Amino acid sequence: MSGLLDREIAFLDALRRAGLPVPLSEVLDATRAMGAVDMLDREGLRAAFAATVVKRSNHRRTFDTLFDLWWPAVTGEPTTSEFLGEGEGEDGEPGQGNGPADPTAMRDALRDLLLKGDEQALQRFAREVVSTLGRSDAQPGRQSWFAYRVLRSLSPETLMASLLEAMLAGQERGGLAERVARQTITERVKQFQEMVEAEVRRRLAEDRGAEQVSKTAVQPLAEQVDFLRASRDDMAELKRQVLPLARRLATRLTARRQLGRTGKLDFRRTVRASLGTGGVPLVTHHKPHKPHKPELVVLCDVSGSVAGFAHFTLMLAYALREQFSKVRAFAFIDTTDEVTQYFTPGVDVAEALQRMSTEAELVWFDGHSDYGHAIEVFAEKYPEAIGPRTSLLILGDARNNYRATGAQTLKGLVQRARHAYWLNPEPAAYWGSGDSATQPYADVIEMVECRNALQLQEFVRDLLPQ
Fold first, then answer.
1. Residue 330, strand partner residues
2. What is the β-pairing status of strands 419-424 and 390-395?
3. What is the pLDDT of residues 129-160, one digit of tens each?
4. What is the pLDDT of residues 38-55, one digit of tens each?
5. Alpha-carbon distances of 414 from 378, 425, 466, rounded to whole Å
6. What are the tens digits of pLDDT across the range 362-404?
7. Residue 236, H or E segment
């Protein structure tokens, strides 16, 4: 039992390193769950662990990848060669097929399996081809495993035409049947590729240890990816998380306000009440707490280098608009325009961003970032936007192409606002390098590093009133 507990603790530690929140209470829950299920039922164990430690749907892929490393379905080499022929290979190891691997025969076997859609058989085939094609003995005395060697040899994506012909079997091409068949084949090919990658990870974990492999086996969670390095898929995932993130923040902020309903000490009422107890203030009285909702003004650089960051932050601000009495948004590249009207309640966010990109007047001269001119235009065209109840939020990397900064104008805006912050998606170590004008701006406004969604979430939580 001790070995199982050690493996469980190592697995949960790997989840923590990957970014999943696993507090001690959930470690205890997972241990109880492990004792309540049949340890021979691997999928039951997976479900028990997932029920206790996975809180968000986008964390499930990371959980499954690490679970497969610590609780593999099989170990070692395939003992028989179901698809590639039985017997010993050239190196005398079992399960390697009779003689050199035949890629044509393997492709034919893969085609048949993709056509049938038998998931378990496809999984067994993936183990065999990894054992046959995925091994590399480039370093003497040490072997390694590579998914790309298998996928390059089999090229499953090139089987689309023959699979379509077999699945349609004389049906009319170009209609619904073909679209369904094409989608089915695409999903099965992707599933096979994932099986190969999972098998490679399993073999590497056996050779090097699950802990070492886990450090590179999983991609960073979407909320941990730097905005400036996020791929299109990462940004799409972040945009899908905006509403759930806003709901979590709103719930926490509401609870925090309820816990902080007591206002400042009412000295007069406290002293008056103490007269009944000989002047000892056994009971204190407080003034009613008057929570306020600030106004929010967002001024964001939407040039190509930081557009993804600005779009995500705009979406989050509007998802949280109920937490503010008023939200106004302004965008700029080298001049500024208000874009509030594109983000009305109920509007499709993708449509709003598209309209902002095509309809708003964001370019004045050459379409390169000019923070100084954008700040001057904002102060001149929208002087009423900043007031004593306003929280001013500026988004951008402050890379100004060596142009005038407009720092004095920004200082006047900051002095008129209740709060003012500058969120910079660049790492702080890069501030001030090259054409970065962070230093002049940091002298007049608090500049905060905000490289990913986690940092943005923490900032928004601190920004909103208690």
1. 299, 338
2. parallel
3. 998 888 887 666 567 888 988 999 899 888 98
4. 988 999 999 999 999 998
5. 13, 20, 22
6. 998 888 899 999 999 999 999 999 999 888 989 999 999 999 9
7. helix 232-240
Beta bridge partners of 328: 297
Q: Which two tokens stand for residue 307?
A: 């557009």
- Three-state SS for 248-309 is HHHHHHHHHHHHCCEEEECHHHHHHHHHHHCCCCCCCCEEECCCCCCEEEEEEECCCCCHHH
Scanning the structure block, which residue is given the tokens 């099986």?
Answer: 195
pLDDT at 184: 93
Each residue of 186-205: b (16+ CB within 10 Å) or e? eebbebbbebbbbbbbbbbb
Residue 131's φ and ψ, nearest 5 degrees, are -65, -30
Cβ neighbours of 92 (radius 10 Å) = 7
Burial class of residue 238 (count of CB atoms within 10 Å of its CB; 0-12, 13-18, 19+): buried
Q: Is the dihedral of CA 359, 362, 364, 366 positive or negative?
A: negative
SS3 label, residue 392: strand
Sequence ranges of the domains in the chain: 2-70, 103-219, 242-259+292-463, 264-289
Identity at 402, one-letter amino acid code: Y
Q: Would you identify the CATH topology of the domain 242-259+292-463?
A: Rossmann fold (3.40.50)
CA dist 1 → 4, 26, 31, 34, 365 (Å): 5, 19, 11, 11, 71
The pair phi, psi for residue 450, each rounded to 5°, is -140, 80
Tell whether the model's pLDDT for residue 435 goes beyond 70: yes
- CA 159 to chain CA centroid, Å, is 33
Q: What is the pLDDT of residue 449?
A: 93
Provide the 10 A C-beta neighbour count for residue 107.
Answer: 17
Strand, coil or helix: 76: coil
What does pTM read for this prediction? 0.68
DSSP state of 372: H
CA distance 343 to 335: 20
Question: Per-residue pLDDT for 127 more than 80?
Answer: yes
